[in-house]
Specification:
Layout: H1 9-16, H2 18-40, H3 47-50, H4 53-70, H5 80-88, H6 105-137, H7 140-170, H8 184-207, H9 213-234, H10 241-274, H11 284-310, H12 317-334, H13 345-370, H14 376-383, H15 385-408, H16 416-433
Length: 447
């Protein structure tokens, strides 16, 4: 039986390189959505509702991309046509212009919400095929390494995207605009990010040749035979193992992704209050805080890049996964009590360690459990629901939870309370890691 061969470092790199551009787009969205809608006039208690749209679109788009790409075989490949189309229809340039068309406050926010929905549709369509190609083309022994490379590229792209507004401000692009309008520093960040996304996807399209249907059939047959031998040796069926792992990892995902939704939504307001001593989105100080959000998120990405290098050396995936989430949770718990902008680097660096594990470990565990399946893309698309659903729940409950946390902890800043809650969620997620079933040979050893 023919099994998937070991791939060189550069082949693994090329499979995921386009993720660098996708993550620039995602970073721009993550760091600036709350800033944009606050500038347009959104109330802090309503801010989380705008964040329902990105995960909602992800939950719709990614399973569809997975399902249809499972059935797509073209001369360009199986997954590549979808990531190329996703990048080509990127509409990032419209969101930061929501306040530029003389709309009323309400109309500007509705327009911005629609543009955010379209932006996230294109990001999700471009993002999912990269995860699927690792599942398709990389053997179990190398998957932890492949997803760690993907995590590295993802976070490298994040650093660039997060720093764009600060960089453009430093070279003289205006960081303050008329009331209700987004500064040019943010607009130009989105313009350049869109161009880089398209170029990176073109690179991967040119460098990666996916396996043919015949080769995939051989690999699937070999994987199924291996699983059958394992089941026979253990004297029990493993037919339900994939679903079991899927659900167990999903529980961990729920707490972790809800925590990061709180970070993306409330970091701007939290540090504007505790470091710049302002809660007025129309003030220049608030826009400086907005730039600094990109800076601390870049520090988070640096922490994630460095930690992603360490993760493959953990002999036990679950130990590395849980430890990473604990470190990230400690970082979240520190944020609301920091009043110096440079000291913020420490907690966000720690948060980056948790983020690195969230990008690599769940997909390693799930794709190992799914090895040999003909519907890898469909299952990974559905697995994306474990990322989207917690974000939707967190966004819908954000205003209520903010009021409750402020009642319990009135001395902590209004939006800072939500970062404390994020820290608690990360620690709960770390505890849940130890309930995940794991195939004995699916370890994250460095090779």
């Amino acid at each position: 039986m023919k099994t998937k061969p070991d791939l060189s470092f550069w082949k693994l790199w090329n499979i995921s390189f386009g993720f660098f551009g996708v993550q620039i787009a995602y970073a721009l969205q993550s760091a600036n959505v709350s800033r944009i809608f606050s500038t347009l006039g959104a109330d802090p208690h309503d801010l989380s509702f705008f964040w329902v749209l990105p995960p909602l679109m992800g939950m719709i788009v990614q399973p569809l991309v997975g399902y249809f790409s499972d059935k797509t075989w073209t001369r360009f490949g199986r997954r590549i046509p979808y990531l190329f189309i996703g990048a080509a229809v990127a509409v990032m340039c419209l969101l930061p212009n929501s306040g530029s068309f003389a709309f009323s406050v309400g109309a500007a926010m509705v327009f911005g919400a629609c543009m955010l929905m379209l932006l996230d549709t294109s990001i999700n369509m471009a993002m999912q095929p990269f995860k699927m190609m690792v599942g398709d083309m990389v053997n179990e022994k190398q998957k932890a390494k492949a997803y760690s490379i993907q995590s590295f590229l993802c976070n490298a792209g994040s650093i660039v995207g997060y720093l764009f507004p600060l960089i453009f401000t430093a070279i003289g692009v205006a960081n303050f605009a008329d009331k209700g309008e987004v500064p040019d520093s943010v607009k130009w960040s989105f313009y350049i990010g869109a161009a880089i996304l398209i170029l990176c996807v073109i690179y991967t399209t040119a460098k990666v040749k996916e396996y043919t249907p015949e080769q995939m059939a051989q690999f699937q047959a070999a994987a199924n035979e291996e699983k059958a031998l394992e089941a026979k040796a253990e004297g029990k069926s493993k037919s339900n193992n994939a679903l079991k792992v899927f659900l167990q990892v999903g529980v961990v995902q729920f707490f972790c992704w809800a925590a990061f939704m709180f970070m993306w939504t409330y970091t701007n307001g939290s540090i504007a209050d505790t470091v710049w001593n302002t809660t007025d989105p129309g003030s220049e100080a608030y826009q400086h805080a907005g730039n600094w959000v990109g800076t601390v998120f870049a520090v988070q990405a640096i922490g994630s890049v460095l930690w992603a290098v360490v993760l493959p050396f953990f002999k036990n995936i679950k130990v590395g996964y849980a430890l990473s989430l604990i470190i990230g949770g400690i970082g979240f718990l520190m944020v609301p009590f920091v009043t110096d902008k440079y000291v913020l680097f420490l907690p966000y660096f720690l948060i980056g360690c948790g983020w690195a594990a969230m990008l690599a470990m769940p997909f390693t565990l799930v794709t190992n459990a799914l090895e040999g399946s003909k519907r890898m893309g469909t299952y990974l698309g559905l697995f994306n629901c474990t990322i989207c659903i917690p974000q939707i729940v967190a966004a819908l409950c954000g205003g209520f939870l903010m009021s409750m946390m402020h009642y319990l902890l009135p001395d902590v800043s209004l939006q800072g309370n939500m970062l404390l809650l994020a820290g608690v969620f990360m620690l709960v997620g770390a505890l849940c890691v130890f309930f995940i079933s794991q195939r004995k040979h699916a370890v994250a050893a460095a090779d």
